[in-house]
């Protein structure tokens, strides 16, 4: 068959869609099935097939939503469960949050002095630069950054690098270093 009439096409689409699962069926699958049935290429009627399929789907959805509304009207809403009465008084003091006892005791062991925040003993050269004998690593890095900024020790040709003054040279050990990699030079100065 070379040419398929629109009427025959619509009837065959209805047959296919009545048997099909609309959630998984696509217009492409419907068109392929029609091409098998009519043994002809239907790409020129693609838009018409799409329109027929969408009309059918919309019609089915509107019927389903109408029947769903009728069913929901017929069903009675279940009564809400009754709540149990709380024991105790109605005073505001009952609503004050009670402190958890076990968590407070467990929390005392954690906190300052562990991991990255732990205070390390500093080498004599670094302690002289920092002005303290013990400091956490992150504080040392912050202080070195402030020293570089205050004394304007940035390399003017490339600001990723800093040029050491005499005090910083004692700690870092090179005249010019990359500021984001300063921990590489500082790690030997953390004792313990």
Order of helices and strands: HHHHEHEHEHEHE
Number of H/I helices: 8
- The level of helicity is 40-55%
Look at the helices and sheets and give the structural class: mainly alpha
Sheet with most strands: strand arrangement: 2-1-5
Record field, number of beta strands: 5
Radius of gyration: 40 Å
What is the CATH topology classification name of the largest domain?
Answer: MDM2
Mean pLDDT: 81
State the distance separating the first and last CA atoms: 91 Å
| Corresponding CATH architecture of the largest domain | Orthogonal Bundle
Sum up the overall morphology in one term.
elongated
Q: Could you describe the largest sheet, including whether it forms a barrel?
A: 3 strands, antiparallel
Overall number of domains: 2
CATH class of the largest domain: Mainly Alpha
CATH superfamily of the largest domain: SWIB/MDM2 domain
Low-confidence stretches: none
Strand content: 5-15%
Biased composition (Basic residues): 78-87
Biased composition (Basic and acidic residues): 88-97
Domain DM2: 115-192
Protein name: Upstream activation factor subunit spp27
């Amino acid at each position: 068959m070379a040419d398929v009439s629109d009427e025959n096409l619509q009837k065959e689409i209805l047959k296919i869609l009545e048997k099909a699962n609309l959630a998984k069926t696509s217009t492409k699958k419907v068109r392929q099935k029609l091409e098998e049935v009519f043994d002809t290429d239907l790409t020129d009627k693609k838009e018409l097939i799409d329109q027929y399929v969408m009309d059918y789907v919309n019609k089915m959805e509107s019927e389903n939503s109408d029947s769903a509304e009728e069913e929901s009207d017929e069903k009675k809403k279940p009564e809400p469960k009754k709540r149990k009465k709380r024991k105790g008084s109605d005073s505001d003091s009952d609503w004050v949050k009670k402190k958890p006892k076990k968590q407070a005791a467990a929390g005392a062991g954690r906190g300052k002095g562990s991991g990255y925040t732990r205070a390390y003993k500093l080498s004599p050269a670094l302690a002289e630069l920092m002005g303290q004998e013990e400091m956490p690593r992150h504080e040392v890095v912050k202080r070195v950054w402030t020293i570089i900024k205050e004394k304007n020790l940035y390399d003017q040709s490339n600001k990723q690098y800093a040029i050491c003054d005499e005090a910083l040279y004692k700690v870092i050990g090179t005249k010019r270093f990359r500021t984001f990699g300063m921990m590489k030079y500082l790690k030997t100065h953390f004792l313990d």
